[in-house]
C-alpha cells in the first residue's frame, strides 16, 4: 500500500517560506506579471509587495537588461536556469543597485511552463568591500593594508627611479624579499 502523500502547502505557508529567505525572490506568470514578492525583495527594491504584485516585472525593477538581456526571459525562452548573473536595478529611490540574479522555470501540474522565478542578492556590501580593498596599495605581488606598509609602497617607485643603493631590513617573515622583487621590477 502506498503512503498517503502530504497535502499541498497552503499559500500562507509559501509566503512564510519565501519571507524567511534573505535573498529577494519574485515570481512571474506567463504575461510577465509579478505573482509573488518576498520581504527581502521589498527591502532591496524599496517597493512593497502590494505595489509589486500584478505589475510587469520591468516596471518594478527598471533595469537596463529588461529590454535586452533579461535573465528571466532567457530562462523562459531557452528553458535553462541562470545562476549568479550580475545586473543593476533601479530601486524606489531611483538609485542604481547592483544585484546578482538566478532564475528558473515554474511548471504547472501538467508540466507546462506557467511562469518563472528569480532570486536576487544585493551586491552593494560586496562592492563596498572590493572598493575598500582596491584602496589598499598594491605593487606587484604586494598588497599593503597597514598604514606603515602603504607608506613603504608609496615611496618604492621613487626609490626605483634613482641610482642609489638600497638596504632592506626587518624581522624574518616581514616580506623583505617581496619588497626587493617589487623594487627590482620597478627599476
Residue runs with pLDDT of under 50 for 5 or more positions:
none
What strand order characterises the main sheet?
2-1-5-4-3
Q: What structural category do the secondary elements indicate?
A: alpha+beta
Q: How far apart are the first and last residues' alpha carbons, in Å?
A: 82 Å
SSE topology string: HEEHHHHEEEHEEHH
User: What is the average per-residue confidence, as pLDDT, rounded to a whole number?
Assistant: 87
- Count all strands and give the number: 7
Share of residues in helices: 25-40%
- Large-scale geometry: elongated
DSSP strand content: 25-35%
Compute the CA-based radius of gyration: 26 Å
Largest sheet: 5 strands, antiparallel
Count every helix, treating DSSP H or I runs of 4 or more residues as helices: 8
